Amino acid sequence: MGLLGFHTMKIKEEELLAGDHIYTDRNQHTYYHHGIFIGDDRVIHFTKVSSDYPAVPEEKCDHHSNTTRDTESGVRMSCVLKCFLQPGHSLYRFVYDEGLLAIVRSTRSARHCTRVESVLRRANEELEEDTFGGSSLILKNCETFAYFCKTGVKFHLSKQVLRSLGFLVLAAAIMV
């Protein structure tokens, strides 16, 4: 189990299903990058241009899109293996429709997700229109984008951000 307890739904590429909310670890498991798998080795995800995800990847795949946008963040489409999933990292599925205990213990959500067609439509609309907005650590990030695509709910507090804030509060309380 990793630092934030996210490693309960590890999957292989051949297990991916269109509409899956997927994620992968980044920066030695300090955070996770989320997206929606749309099939044919493609994932739509919300990202901020960084060293982990440059505007133009070193080895550009033919699925990589929207690299010419002026904004530093936004909805992008890329391939799963060369761009989204970095070499040596694992792939995970975010599982929905489970009980409250599962939410507290892992990355699962109690909200029911919508049909695959709706998930794919939302992800593709956001890719085409880029209306999800700018990046915000707590309210607008890759996890909240994938959650929106799966549930239709735009306001969602990122579980990994809430965990991190909880760790900070605990650390501050210990230091006092």
Q: What would your notes on this structure say?
A:
This protein has 176 residues and is α+β, with helices and mostly antiparallel strands. It has a single domain (10-175), classed as endopeptidase fold (from Nostoc punctiforme), CATH 3.90.1720. The protein contains 5 helices and 6 strands, in the order βββββαβαααα. It has helices at 80-84, 100-105, 116-129, 142-151, 159-175, and strands at residues 10-11, 21-26, 31-39, 42-48, 73-79, 91-93. The protein has a 6-stranded antiparallel β-sheet with strand order 1-6-2-3-4-5. β3 and β4 form a beta hairpin. The protein is globular and about 50 Å long. 31% of the residues are buried.
Order of helices and strands: EEEEEHEHHHH
* Relative helix content: 25-40%
Span from first to last CA? 30 Å
What's the CATH first level? Answer: Alpha Beta
Q: Report the CATH superfamily.
A: endopeptidase domain like (from Nostoc punctiforme)
Number of domains: 1
CATH topology: endopeptidase fold (from Nostoc punctiforme)
Strand order of the largest sheet: 1-6-2-3-4-5
| Range of strand content | 15-25%
- Report on the biggest sheet: 6 strands, antiparallel
Number of strands: 6
- Which geometry do the CA atoms define? globular
CATH architecture: Alpha-Beta Complex
How would you state the average pLDDT, rounded? 73
Quaternary structure: single chain
**Low-confidence runs (pLDDT<50, min 5 residues)?**
1-7
Rg calc: 16 Å
Instruction: Supply the number of helical segments.
Output: 5
Question: What structural category do the secondary elements indicate?
Answer: alpha+beta
